[in-house]
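Researcher: Next entry in the queue.
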Amino acid sequence: MDNEKKEVEEKEDVEPLTEEEFKEYQEKDARTTKKVLRFFKAIWEAINFFN
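Model: Structure for this entry, 51 residues:
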């Protein structure tokens, strides 16, 4: 019961991101997505190369 109460209190303390922080988050997310896509593209090309 106490754990549930603590979780609710923690969620209420969260402040929304400022526009600058949100922009930084989007840029970081885009870089991460780009890296992941390059990784899978390399795997796909390797699979196609050996087939």
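Model: The two ends are 57 Å apart (CA to CA).
Researcher: Noted, moving on.
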